[in-house]
Amino acid sequence: MEFGDYEQLRFERHDNGVLLVTIDRPEKYNATDERMHGELARVWRDVAADPGTRVAVVTGAGNAFSAGGDLAMVARMAGDHERVSHMLGEMSDLVYNIIDCEKPIVSAINGVAVGAGLVVALLADIAICAEDARLGDGHVKLGVAAGDHAAIIWPLLAGMAKARYYLLTGEMLTGAEAERLGMVAKALPREQVLEESLRVAQSLATGAQQAIRLSKRALNGWLRSAGPVFDQSAAYEMLTFMGPDVLEGVAALREKRPPRFPSAS
Fold first, then answer.
1. First to last CA, the chain
2. Distance between CA atoms of residues 224 and 161, nearest Å
3. Is the pLDDT of residue 221 over 80?
4. pLDDT for 209-219, tens place per residue?
5. Is residue 77 part of a domain?
6. Which domain holds residue 92?
7. Which of 2, 19, 212, 215 has CB 3.0 to 4.6 Å from 53, enough for a Cys bridge?
8. Is residue 1 part of a domain?
């Protein structure tokens, strides 16, 4: 498999079946538009099916991992039932394809990670993060419910109290704080993140493959058991895309001002 039909993901093969996947839209801080969101959703099926890959490492081009959803895409979705319905299916594919990929995934979080980028960053089997990276689920600040990956993984990683705090306020946290909370495996100086991620990937790629893959499958049983929670949160996010608050959220972000949500007036 050559992954030749991807436009916004770049692939580089390393020794022992390690595949480096780079989210490649640096001029937009790797923000996800419709094309990239679709590619992030389906790439994990291709990774699973690729006989030349044992471990995938995913990182971002430039200084960001992924700055979340492109505001133009968000604006196109608002109030559009057809687009929202399509995104609901694609969100599910993104989450479940990562969980179900039998091969280990290592995320090298080299900078800001928000939205769909944060889905990949935190659902990866091993997350290695820059200490000064900024992570956050800002759905509520946009005016939509915290869907994507948030309800399925944040309480498991950080505990319910911290998950509630960050998901209800939309505040960001640093990579160093994410390590302290247990949300990432390691936080390192930014220049060491990719090197360490590739080192870990090589260790996995040269280890006992069936043992590693079956261990991943068993551990991800915790996430599969929380599947109904994710399905509910994703539906709620898409429901709020049909309301008026999201339009104000987009406008406020574009104008760099505090939002004045209709539901809060």
1. 53
2. 22
3. yes
4. 999 999 999 99
5. yes
6. 9-264
7. 19
8. no
